[in-house]
Amino acid sequence: MINHMMLVVVGLMLGSAALWAAEEEAPAGIHYPGETHLANIRQLTFGGQNAEAYFSFDGTQLIFQSTRDGRGCDAIYRMHTDGTNVRQLSSGEGATTCSFIAPDGAAIIYASTHLGGPECPPKPDMSQGYVWSLHSSYDIFRADPDGGNLVRLTDTPGYDAEGVYSPQGDQIVFTSVRSGDLELWLMKPDGSGLEQLTNTPGYDGGAFFSRDGNWIVWRASRPTGEALADYRNLLAQDLVRPSRLELYTMHLTHREPIQLTDNGAANFGPYWHPNGRHVIFASNVDDPKGRNFDLYLIDIETRAIEHVTRFPGFDGFPMFSYDGKQLVFASNRNNKIRGETNVFIADWVW
Question: 3-state secondary structure string, 173-235?
Fold first, then answer.
């Protein structure tokens, strides 16, 4: 959104996923040895930068962001889960990110900078190292399923993005800088009923609900000392450095953060399996100084971790279908041009 952390690029939620590519050329192919949880992998997009593809509740549609057709930044698209009937939903003005389909299928949400101007916002200045831009013109919008009747849901100065619906459709969790820090917030689908969920210095973002709607899982940085000073200095410039992110969970009744990972890596894109016990996520834990991001599955009770994907490059942005039978993710695998990121879907095998 992206954005998304770690020695890669602005993916998840913060722009194009182009630079998530590995430094070296990787072998072509779709299915790699050791990917035993994945069967019948299919490639759904071919060319450009395609990421953050998320299922509709009935499992027949995907909404995603893509930089294609000569555009300089992401627009929002929709397609069938077999890759057909691709159509653009956003206007093409500004940059967009973090789209999601309401459980009843009657609306979509996404973040956009178009009110700040029709052009793509500037890329971040990398003279301070690898950073993401937190464009202050990002707000969250609701629209009809075809992209029409756009309604602004957030209206405060600064970054508002990374929004997703709860499975019951009664809440949206999102990331905002409105309190002076990057925190998680809840709101109703019409933008009312704002509640702040986190309140610890550092970046909190990329949250997703459990299937029963009782829990969230998200990525967070918890800098201290010099790292905290660096974080605050960058935040004042609408930037964030996503090189170290751990995963947290929270029950929405008790609202006490529970740390899920503690590996010092760039962990991101966590998503619950419908069984409520497992979370899939992307990480460079096995390549901490590189750009090889794989998908991993963690048992939230035992903390046991399984290595899911084995492509020697970027795999990220996973989402289980609501019945748990399929997994969609973005990957640099099977590229025709180095650096392309495409959407893949697979049957999930226990």
Answer: EEEECCCCCCEEEEECCCCCCCEECCCCCCCEEEEEECCCCCEEEEEECCCCHHHHHHHHHHH
Q: Which of 196, 188, 180, 303 lies closest to 231 in space, CA to CA?
A: 180
Looking at domain 18-348, which CATH architecture does it have? 6 Propeller (2.120)
Q: Which two tokens stand for residue 322?
A: 């609501």
Is the Cβ–Cβ distance between 132 and 17 less than 8 Å? no
- Closest residue by Cα to residue 122 from 78, 72, 51, 86: 72
Burial class from Cβ neighbours inside 10 Å (0-12, 13-18, 19+) for residue 181 reads middle
pLDDT tens digits, residue range 194-242?
Answer: 999 999 999 999 999 999 999 999 999 999 999 999 999 999 999 999 8
Ranges of each domain in the chain: 18-348
Helices (H) and strands (E) in the chain, counts: 1, 26
Three-state DSSP class for residue 126: helix
